[in-house]
From TrEMBL:
InterPro entries per the UniProt record, alphabetical: Leu-rich_rpt, Leu-rich_rpt_typical-subtyp, LRR_dom_sf, LRRNT, Mimecan/Epiphycan/Opticin
Gene from which the chain derives: OPTC
Gene Ontology cellular-component terms listed: extracellular matrix; extracellular space
Name under which the protein is recorded: Opticin
SUPFAM superfamilies with a match to the protein in the record: L domain-like
Top-rank taxon: Eukaryota
UniProt keyword annotations, A-Z: Disulfide bond, Extracellular matrix, Glycoprotein, Leucine-rich repeat, Repeat, Secreted, Signal
GO terms (BP aspect): angiogenesis; articular cartilage development; bone development; collagen fibril organization; negative regulation of angiogenesis
Classification of source organism: Eukaryota, Metazoa, Chordata, Craniata, Vertebrata
Subcellular location: Secreted, Extracellular space, Extracellular matrix
UniProt similarity note: Belongs to the small leucine-rich proteoglycan (SLRP) family. SLRP class III subfamily.
Signal sequence residues: 1-15
Region ranges (Disordered): 82-109
Keyword Repeat listed: yes
All copies of domain LRRNT, residue ranges: 123-153
Length: 328
């Protein structure tokens, strides 16, 4: 459906580009080295990349459409990560998108154009939007771009994003998965994810986080491996309210304690390669209640921690399987 829309739009944009008399093109958008399938040899006029509404509704840059994929033949040719972003993300793009939905520009573009603008199409030129998935892997991003409101799955791996702002995902009420693996994130606003009531998977692996923000109770999987997390960087009882959490992967960090309490539905707890030195008798099991069975928690990894697991024989009675780690 969406690709059909985009195809239609591509045709429209090309018609528009060839029909309009070329303006004096000063800067040409840098084209990536990768060969594009269809529009490579078209000689389209150059336009400055200007998305502001102030310039009489001329906020579409047809030269950008040189870089569109041939959506007819998408599956075999898709190459995530070979598109370079436009020279610069214009300031206030988000505000522009909101304005566009409220008051149409003086020279009103066709409805199709307008609805696509509202969906955040400029991002879909930098990234690949397939249905409600947005793929922004390896796109040289230094911040989260404005995303289509319908975005369900976001992949922005292998970029150089440093900071996640509270506003980045604020309008996105359908997100189920955010994957920001391998960026430079060292700071996340505490409210960046809290309100995302449909978010099931949050993947922040391979970043520089010393702390975790507040988390939504819908989370099933949290992956923050290979960061700089310290126990003081976790909210007190950070995971207690996450009743749906099944996978908590915090290996290769600087934690010196197992975060408690662990939600009852947890199936997999990865804490290998941290600085955990001790285990409390109530960490996994309720020491006063020997009928307590933690059926789900089958996969606990504590290897690579300076802890002698043999010293805590009473800590594992409720578990279906004892943790992996050092039993000297
Ligand atoms: C680990 O704990 C066990 C049980 O108390 C003990 O016998 C063993 O010597 C300890 N190993 C080390 C390396 O401390």
């Amino acid at each position: 459906m969406q690709s059909a829309t985009l195809l239609g739009f591509t045709t429209l944009a090309l018609a528009l580009a060839t029909a309009t008399s070329p303006q004096e093109g000063k800067k040409k958008i840098e084209k990536p080295g990768a060969a594009l399938p269809t529009y490579d040899n078209l000689d389209l006029p150059n336009y400055d990349f200007d998305l502001s509404l102030d310039s009489e509704g001329e906020f579409f840059d047809p030269s950008l459409y040189e870089e569109l994929y041939d959506y007819n033949d998408l599956a075999p040719k898709i190459e995530v990560g070979t598109l370079a972003p436009p020279t610069k993300q214009p300031e206030g793009t988000r505000a522009m998108l909101t304005d566009a939905s409220r008051k149409p520009p003086p020279t009103s573009p066709p409805d199709l154009l307008r609805s696509i603008i509202k969906q955040g199409l400029p991002t879909c030129l930098v990234c690949v939007c397939l249905s409600t998935s947005v793929y922004c892997d390896d796109a040289d991003l230094d911040q989260i771009p404005p995303l289509p409101l319908e975005t369900t799955y976001l992949y922005a791996r292998f970029n150089r994003i440093r900071h996640i702002r509270a506003s980045d995902f604020a309008r996105l009420k359908k997100l189920k998965r955010i994957d920001l693996t391998s960026n430079d994130i060292s700071c996340v606003d505490d409210d960046a994810f809290r309100q995302l009531s449909t978010l099931q998977e949050l993947i922040l692996a391979e970043n520089r986080l010393p702390a975790l923000p507040a988390l939504p109770s819908s989370l099933v999987r949290l992956d923050a491996r290979f960061n700089r997390l310290q126990s003081s960087g976790l909210h007190p009882e950070a995971f207690r309210k996450l009743k749906k959490l099944q996978f908590l992967h915090l290996s290769d960090n600087k934690l010196d304690a197992i975060p408690v309490p662990l939600p009852e539905g947890l199936r997999s707890l990865h804490l290998q390669n941290n600085n955990i030195q001790t285990i409390h008798k109530d960490t996994f099991c309720e020491s006063q209640d020997h009928s307590h069975v933690r059926q789900a928690l089958e996969d606990i990894r504590l290897d690579g921690n300076p802890v002698n697991l043999s010293l805590f024989p009473d800590a594992y009675f409720c578990l279906p399987r004892i943790p992996t780690g050092r039993f000297d």
